[in-house]
Amino acid sequence: MRHCIYPGTFDPLTYGHLDVLERATKLFDRVTVAVSDNPAKGPFFSAAERLALLQPNVARFANVTATTFDILLVEYARQQEACAIIRGLRAISDFEFEFNMALMNRHLQPGIETIFVMPNEEFSYTSSTLVKQVAKYGGDISHFVPPNVAEALRAAFSGADSRKNVF
Q1: Contacts of 92 (CB under 8 A, 6+ apart)
Q2: Where are the domains of the chain?
């Protein structure tokens, strides 16, 4: 059975992430969406919140599971017996960082391949950082994120009390 890991911060999950995931489900028998639990990256949502936002959006894929991880990615992939890591590339600017990471991962775990997947061009300019900025100032983010994610961002930016009702 071909198994891949689709890792990311997913802070927050976007339609671009889901597009890459859908492409991965067609290439692999099993896909694990792995939410990085790395507080040093300063995520807006906690790993548990990001996982909670992600799970209802991946439920439609029969061959997808979602979890968090807090160890070196290639070690996690090895533990999960995955043969590949899926990485989304939106633009040329993503390539240099992703290429260097793929080479390091290959050095650390030569048996695990990194596969770059391009999302549909309608998502090529969407990033989690931009979505958070638009949401912070009250802009419409409904074209970029699933409804539950949009609601969580609205709640988070409108006040701490309303955020608790989302999760």
Answers
A1: none
A2: 3-123
Catalytic entry in 36, 50, 128, 163: 128
Q: Which residue among 3, 78, 90, 154 is the active-site one?
A: 90
CA distance 73 to 18: 20
Q: Which of 17, 23, 50, 87 is catalytic?
A: 17
| Residue 106 among the catalytic residues | no
Would you call 90 a catalytic residue per the annotation?
yes
pTM here is 0.92
For 3-123, CATH gives 3.40.50.620
Tens of pLDDT along 57-91?
Answer: 999 999 999 999 999 999 999 999 999 999 998 87
Known catalytic membership, residue 41: yes
Residue 128 known to be catalytic: yes
